[in-house]
Design goal:
With 546 residues, the chain is α/β, with parallel strands linked by helices. The chain is built from 18 helices and 27 strands. Strands 2-6-5-3-4-9-8 form a seven-stranded mixed β-sheet, with helices on both faces. It has a seven-stranded antiparallel β-sheet with strand order 20-21-24-25-26-19-27. Strands 11-10-12-13-14 form a five-stranded mixed β-sheet, with helices on both faces. The mean pLDDT is 96. The chain binds alpha-D-glucose-1-phosphate-6-vanadate and cobalt (II) ion (CO).
């Protein structure tokens, strides 16, 4: 194949600042001439020496995935990479990409996804760089990428025909080898090293656990079919919406009670499944459901930690656990009982990387339907499903019993997140600034029965490398352990999204059966009184409640 490198002059874009998880923009923004190329060259320039290195490349299959892959392959060849491992069809889930980076010890990987954001021509697209530990590039790196994107004036790209990315095997582009790989095999194999597949399979075959896995027409379909239906022998059709589609079938690939409505209806129906789960666009999130029962992600993390001894891969004990700051404190109670440390990090998986690398944490989780462990350096949706199935196969009890018994032992952390999506940016900014200006005066103040113990704008010092990340969300902590947290999303692409997180602990088993919206109502009132949410956002209610 003919091969020639071109240097293309370009001008910087001012808006290529990576957010919580990479650069996310509307497809229309990414389609502007040079936009994608500038960002990719900024990554390569930040890496400095790419000569002869190996890169992993794949995405969640959304619209523009295939086009972007061709551009990145040609740029990688022009920038001197020696080898690129591409998922066949351009597909790789985020955790599978992390798995490949680690297994083949590559320099890093580029993952194309806007995760839970809608796709299609008018939807969102995204790009993220992961470093050689398999995890999202840390803030120092994304900061350098952004700085580079503000100065860039040239990028390099090979002039060549498009590469066949659908057939597994090797091809070359100039001196670079392109290896098209089955996206599922290595990941599926890793799962068999962690979980007791025989035991899960035997339990599924008894017929006492009917499962339904909703892939939401996103990346997990092929993975879930291979693992649950083919390896574990779950009934054919257990995986629904299994075909990855460029627009996710018009849906919003966000596994929560609002966007995974079809699955929720099934699980609440008579004769519905005993266990349900859904994943997001790029396969790193999970929602866990039992028969007519919803497990909050924060509770799920706590239950996994408390029952890790059921699972072969974690039977030797947990080094520690870690949760993002807004995630409920349920897992802290488990850690206390296990005599291990619980770390509190800012939102975003990149903050767990150092703790996992240093062996300080084994399990990590976020309230936003993210759970994972040291097996990769990303959160991992199907891993969480397998972890649950392994626990269920050992305990042979319904999900609801496992969770309610957990509450009886540790207390229940009532929890809810209220999102106000696509609020005008200056309105959101105003609310945040007003709130920030009040924090120093809040400790000691009472609101009805609640008294503020501490209030701050969360700042994190990484215990491994000492790096400091400031302004990671406002925390109002009450003397009874309740919390209200407010932060602005770093993944939205329209206006600003404000997230309000509410948490209250209930030790009394007789009072653990309330609807969380009811149990947390006093905290909603405090938030409204202190922040005038309705007036400031111009909305009379949240857009999404989880
Ligand atoms: C959201 C979640 C955060 C998660 C991030 C990426 O970020 O709150 O917990 O790590 O998405 O997840 P934000 O800044 O919008 O709150 V994913 O599955 O989109 O890679
Ligand atoms: Co995701």
């Amino acid at each position: 194949m003919s091969f020639k490198v071109e240097k293309i002059n370009t001008q910087p874009f001012s808006d290529q600042k990576p957010g919580t998880s990479g650069l996310r923009k509307k497809v229309t923004v990414f389609k502007q001439p040079h936009y994608l190329e500038n960002f990719v060259q900024s990554i390569f320039d930040t890496l400095k020496d790419c000569n002869g290195q190996t890169l992993v490349l794949g995405g969640d299959g959304r619209y523009y995935n295939r086009q972007a892959i061709q551009v990145i392959l040609k740029m990688a060849a022009a920038n001197g990479f020696g080898r690129v491992i591409v998922g066949a069809g351009g597909l790789l889930s985020t955790p599978a990409a992390s798995c490949l980076i680690r297994k083949y010890q590559t320099l890093g990987g580029i993952i194309l996804s806007a995760s839970h954001n809608p796709g299609g021509e008018n939807g969102d697209f995204g790009i993220k760089y992961n470093i050689n530990n398999g995890g999202p590039a840390p803030e120092q790196f994304t900061g350098a990428m952004y700085a580079r994107s503000r100065e860039i004036d040239v990028y390099q790209i090979a002039v060549a025909d498009d590469i066949d990315i659908d057939r597994p095997g090797e091809t070359s582009l100039g001196d670079m080898t392109i290896e098209v790989m089955d996206p599922v095999a290595d990941y599926a194999e890793l799962m068999t090293t962690l979980f007791d597949f025989d035991r899960i399979s035997d339990y599924l075959k008894t017929g006492s656990l009917k499962i339904c896995i909703d892939a939401m027409h996103a990346i997990t379909g092929p993975y879930a079919r291979a693992i649950f239906e083919q390896s574990l022998g779950a009934a054919a059709g257990s995986v629904i919406r299994a075909e990855p589609l460029e627009d996710f079938g018009g849906g919003h690939p966000d596994p929560n009670l609002v966007y995974a409505k079809e699955l929720v209806e099934l699980i609440y129906a008579d004769n519905g499944p005993d266990f349900g789960a859904a994943s997001d666009g790029d396969g790193d999130r999970n929602m866990i459901l039992g028969k007519r029962f919803y497990v909050t992600p924060s509770d799920s993390l706590a239950v996994l930690a408390a029952n890790a001894d059921c699972v072969p891969g974690y039977r030797d004990g947990l080094a520690g656990v870690a949760r993002s700051m807004p995630t409920s404190q349920a897992v802290d109670r488990v850690a206390e009982k296990l005599g291990i440390k619980s770390y509190e990090t800012p939102t975003g998986w990149k903050f767990f990387g150092n703790l996992l690398d240093a062996g300080k944490a084994t399990l990590c989780g976020e309230e936003s339907f993210g759970t994972g462990s040291n097996h990769v350096r990303e959160k991992d949706g199907l891993w969480a499903v397998l972890f649950w199935l392994n626990i269920l196969a050992v305990k042979q009890k319904p999900v609801a019993d496992i969770v309610t018994e957990h509450w009886q032992t540790y207390g229940r952390n009532y929890y809810s997140r209220h999102d106000y999506e696509a609020v005008e940016s200056d309105r959101a900014e105003r609310l945040m600034q007003q709130l920030r200006s009040t924090v120093t005066g809040l400790p000691g103040k009472t609101f009805g029965d609640y008294q503020i113990e501490y209030a701050d704008d969360f700042s994190y010092t990484d215990p491994v490398d000492g790096s400091v990340s400031e302004q990671q969300g406002i925390r109002l902590g009450f003397t009874d352990g309740s919390r209200i947290i407010v932060r602005q999303s770093g993944t939205g692409t329209e206006g600003a999204t404000l997230r309000f997180y509410y948490e209250r602990h209930e030790a009394d088993p007789a009072k653990q059966n309330l609807d969380p919206q009811q149990a947390l109502a006093p905290l909603f009132e405090i938030a409204e009184a202190h922040m005038q949410i309705q007036e400031n956002t111009g909305r009379d209610r949240p857009s999404v409640i989880t």
